[in-house]
Amino acid sequence: MTTDKIRVIITNKQKQVKIPTGLRMLVRRCCNAVLRMEEFKGAAEISVTFVDNQDIRMLNAQYRNKDAVTDVLSFPMGENGVYDVDPTTGAQILGDVVISIEKAMEQAELYGHSLQREVGYLTAHSVLHLLGYDHETNGLDRVRMREKEEYVMDMLGLPSSSSYVIDDESV
To answer: What domains, with CATH codes, occur in the chain?
Structure first.
């Protein structure tokens, strides 16, 4: 296990949802768990921002040309494992994670699990993106990414409740 410092800067830019006690610590633990799992070397810095549905929709439209609310956006600062370095700390700047806490609450309710599990999962998903993973390229990458996300959730004591959304028409 690496003893390098991992700095997670968390900002709350929304007022729709009160951030539960312990959620910021969970986000930090999640970032650390992903970087440990991936055997990331060196000091790292990740920025995580909580926003509402309106803000994430604007960011999604601006950066992905998708005018829709989404749960999480990732803005990687590196390419092919090479990252900008903060000259004052020497930390590699992995990038920014933006989570709609409003959407996370909706999804936690939809999937029948806690807000903590949902935010943890979204954080793990997004940090994997910062490290170069991409589930939109092919099915195998999607499966690998999902396995890694679930491994991190198990490490943090937030296993899947194995609840899947069932299409009512197929029942």
So the answer is: 6-158 (3.40.390.30)
pTM listed for this prediction: 0.89
The series of mean pLDDT values per 10 residues for the chain, 171 residues long, is: 77 95 96 96 96 98 96 92 89 97 96 94 96 82 90 90 45 37
Q: Find the helix or strand (DSSP H, E) in which 50 lies.
A: strand 44-51
Nearest to 50 by CA among 113, 107, 111, 96: 96
Looking at the chain, list the stretches that DSSP marks H as alpha helix, in order from N- to C-terminal side.
23-37, 53-64, 101-111, 115-130, 139-155
Q: 154 in helix, strand or coil?
A: helix
Query: Using CA atoms, how far apart are residues 123 and 120, in angstroms rounded to an integer?
Result: 5
- DSSP letter at 78 equals -
The identity of residue 1, as a single letter, is M
Nearest Cα to 126, choosing from 65, 59, 62?
Answer: 59
Task: Return the structure tokens found at 156.
Answer: 């943090």
